[in-house]
Design goal:
mainly beta, Porin, 1 helix, 16 strands
Length: about 350
């Protein structure tokens, strides 16, 4: 906490959160249901989350971090640090940018789930009027030093377009992704497993002075890969969807994912409601998630220009393609301090 407050004095944009709550299946952040011993066990959670960001004329950067403690058992407690930075240049209606993020996650009570994740993005764009045309590529490399069969890398070139008309925003994008992971062969040795995916994205947004609505649809058609690929956790500790769960082709599948969210800001209050549905049909009985439904509600009230009080409840219901399933419900209460723009 002291480090975040010290950094805030020199940073143009800083945010610190302190929260406490509980969740019914904390193991879902580090393992798949088939690996849980004795089923899921509810746990209390306390956390501190911080973010410092700055932006110059053509550069940007920042660092985020979090400390999550679970009790009475601490095997899912987490420490994380996420530095990021990049360069963005714009000349008239043309732009070019590149950036990188490194996400370090350490689970003191379950070191095998600790990992480091590097993401690098390069993009060029054109901005005629209220529209944007983009072309770029994203490369990801995630390493689990103690559990090498979970490590993977991907590269994904993408083209997309976005336009705004009055209060309506429409975005479309398509990409081709190549992935490489590791699996364990019949002899018990680690072996490479490669695959590919065709991805699409359609987004629709409607914004008004006091409310906003967002909708997105993301289909994936995956080829090759190994059906034994472990099922990566689908949600982060705070309940956000983790795209790494879709990184590997897992023997081939067709997946549909829909996200809907709405925010309302009457006076000092902010209310956000979100929902997610994900359905995957695998070519084999793979150890990957087949169906997922998630919903959450967050209510926040400003206490001053820099302080807000918030509460959040959410539930995720998940089933693997080969049978096991779980329900993870979460509830948080917290404080948020923010400085700068």
């Amino acid at each position: 906490m002291i480090l975040w407050l010290a950094a805030a004095l020199a940073a143009p944009s800083t945010e610190v959160q302190m929260l406490a709550g509980a969740r019914t299946a904390p193991e879902a952040t580090v393992e798949q249901p088939s690996e849980w011993e004795g089923g899921s066990r509810p746990a209390g959670v306390i956390a501190s989350i911080g973010r410092v960001a700055w932006r110059g004329k053509s550069t940007w950067g920042g660092v985020g971090g979090a400390a999550w403690g679970t009790f009475p058992e601490s095997n899912t407690s987490l420490l994380s640090m996420t530095p990021r930075g990049g360069i963005e240049v714009r000349e008239g209606a043309l732009s070019a940018s590149t950036g990188a993020t490194y996400d370090l996650r350490w689970f003191p009570g379950q070191v095998t789930s600790s990992s480091g994740r590097l993401e690098v993005l390069a993009e060029v764009g054109a901005h005629p009027g209220t529209s944007t045309l983009r072309a770029g590529a994203t490369a990801i490399d995630r390493r689990y030093p103690r559990q090498k069969e979970w490590s993977f890398s991907t590269i994904e070139p993408e083209v997309g377009a976005e336009t705004t008309w009055r209060d309506v925003r429409l975005g479309l994008a398509s990409s081709m992704q190549w992935n490489r992971g590791r699996t364990v062969d019949a002899a018990g040795a680690s072996a490479l497993a490669t695959g590919s995916q065709v991805r699409g994205r359609a987004e629709l947004g409607l914004s008004k002075p006091l409310w906003a609505l967002e909708f997105s649809y993301r289909p994936i058609v995956a080829f090759e890969g190994q059906s034994e690929d472990a099922a990566r956790p689908q949600f982060t500790p705070v309940g956000a969807y983790a795209d790494d769960a879709d990184a590997l082709s897992a023997g081939g599948f067709v997946q549909h994912r829909v996200n809907v969210s709405m925010g309302v800001t009457p006076g000092p209050w902010t209310v956000r409601v979100g929902g997610l549905g994900r359905f995957r049909v695998s070519s084999e009985a793979a150890a990957s998630f087949g169906r997922t439904v998630h919903g959450d509600v967050m209510i926040e009230r400003k206490a001053s220009d820099h302080l807000a009080v918030f509460g959040r409840v959410g539930t995720s219901a998940v089933q693997l393609a080969n049978g096991p399933s779980y329900v993870d419900s979460q509830a948080w209460l917290g404080l948020r301090w923010s400085w700068g723009p």
